[in-house]
Amino acid sequence: MNRWGEKRYHSLDYDLKQNYGEKVYKITLDGGMTCPNRDGKVGRGGCIFCSASGSGDFAGSRALSITEQIARGKKELNGKRPVHSYIAYFQAFTNTYAPVERLKKLYMEAIQDEEVKILSIATRPDCLGDDVLELLGAVNRINPVWVELGLQTIHPATAAFIRRGYELPVFEKAVKDLRKLGITVIVHTILFLPGETKAQMLKTLDYLNHMDIQGIKLQLLHILKGTDLAEEYKKRPFLVPDMQEYIEFLGTCISRLNPQITIHRLTGDGPSDLLIAPLWTSQKRTVLNTLHRYLKEQDIWQGKEYHE
Ligand code: SF4
């Protein structure tokens, strides 16, 4: 198996090396946004799993400008190795939820750095109005733009439980609108949400297999301090997989996944000071090494069980 270099799946690293000839590093930014699922426009309290930093626990400081955050990110990365190419990743909160003039200023500031090769924007599918789409299309003509949509699951009961705050057709429209503009779409999913069976998780994957998306994040549910999910877990502890169970299930997911879709994440690394469970995920290297060994032993590769 050497279709994707040394890995048995279509990894982001592989794609970036193919397209840019070298490893491209992510600088995680905080553009000072909020979220309609927190400020009352869609809901209050946010998604049940979302931390106080709006799922941007590793993002730069919002007290700094984008230029300063990029400079700081570069300094940290360059201290360990020579780096020439970056992804400017707006991660914290909802990064298309602001007046379009403000968004334009933030995005343009990020891409004015010549070493920023890609602008990556995490957002909600219900925050992509016509003016925002027009802006994203214009920026995409200057620098490649990726938009990451937080879907998590296709199942309405789970979506209600996690307080996602939008229905599936909203996601489908967002994907179509972004693809019309030639924008790369990445979908964030969460595995082992409370109450979901493995068959349901695979159904979400099968659904995405047939959508026009280019990337996927498979994030294991993390229970973080200070979230409503942590309260729920305390009151009614639910199943959290151990490493072996998770690796075996990931093997099934990888095997089912459309080989055209790039995998951007396979586990997730919650900040150790906030992580309540599963604690084994903080050993990210061990998890990935164990997964790679498992895929080899079981002769699994991405798309082995995928049928068009
Ligand atoms: S949409 Fe994103 S930022 Fe908003 S509450 Fe949910 S996870 Fe947090």
Automatic annotation (TrEMBL):
InterPro entries, per database record: ELP3, Elp3/MiaA/NifB-like_rSAM, Radical_SAM_C, rSAM, YhcC-like
UniProt entry keywords in alphabetical sequence: 4Fe-4S, Iron, Iron-sulfur, Metal-binding, S-adenosyl-L-methionine
Cofactor: [4Fe-4S] cluster
Pfam families: Radical_SAM, Radical_SAM_C
Radical SAM core domain ranges (all copies): 19-271
NCBIfam families with a match to the protein in the record: TIGR01212 family radical SAM protein
Name of the featured protein: TIGR01212 family radical SAM protein
